[in-house]
Amino acid sequence: MRMIQQIAAMQSWSENQRCLGRRLVFVPTMGFLHEGHLSLVRDAKTRGDKVIVSIFVNPAQFTPEEDYATYPRDLERDWQLLDKEGIDVLFNPSADEIYPEGYQTSIKVEKLGALLCARFRPGHFRGVATIVAKLFNIVRPHLAIFGCKDYQQLQIVRQLVRDLNLPIEIIAHPTVREPDGLAMSSRNAYLDPQERKAALCLSRSLRMAEALARQGERRAKIILERVTGELKKESLARVEYVSLIDAESLQDVDQLERPAVLALAVRIGKARLIDNQILKP
Ligand code: AMP
User: Fold this and answer.
1) Is the pTM of this model over 0.90?
2) 53 lines ligand 1 (CB under 6 A)
3) Is the CB of 125 inside a 6 Å radius of any atom of ligand 1?
């Protein structure tokens, strides 16, 4: 595995590989890798000839009061994990390389980028859309893999690719969970043992919603009330939102008539946790 930190070097490596007819698969991350990330990497290996993983903690997607400075980082450990997976390139640029002095362009996915998490993290998805577009232009992959855990992000990336006619196929990878149900996340590192236990309220309430839908409940209002009630039983949980949304437009639905996504964001201690589940009528 080689590490590339310069944009020009990354672009020329990819250009060479493309000339050799290789199919390039890309997994963008912010590092501090866990089994969720590694599952995307293993998926990537089955889909092409060369796998590129980026590790870049993107300052543009953190609001000023968020955890950019303290976001967990461990490049040495990430390197070992990726080397073991047998990927081809770890792209790890500096913030100055990505946003040099005088940088001024950003991308806004207007509608999808204004819903759900955006209401609590102003500017977040503008930062995400911008870095994803930039990374796509630097890495030049044929295919890129994103996790369903960040469902709104996944839909925003798909929209961006459609709107800007980027010749990149986007693959969605299912959410990887701890054995007790907690969705894996780099930010789980913020949880102390008591908060870690409390964090199970997210997956528990999603399972409850799934059971309700299976029993025939179609009314969004009832499902949302029950899920919110379940989350509120957990005294350490501060609910940001619980929404039942259309899987593509991300607009709220009143009735579960076709598969929809139950999405939630909850703060526990210092951690802001998100999770979601597809509900089928
Ligand atoms: P991050 O490093 O948090 O920006 O995540 C990088 C990629 O990994 C994104 O596409 C995430 O959706 C994906 N990802 C993070 N956690 C998980 C998980 N538990 N299961 C599946 N994918 C995940």
Assistant:
1) yes
2) no
3) no
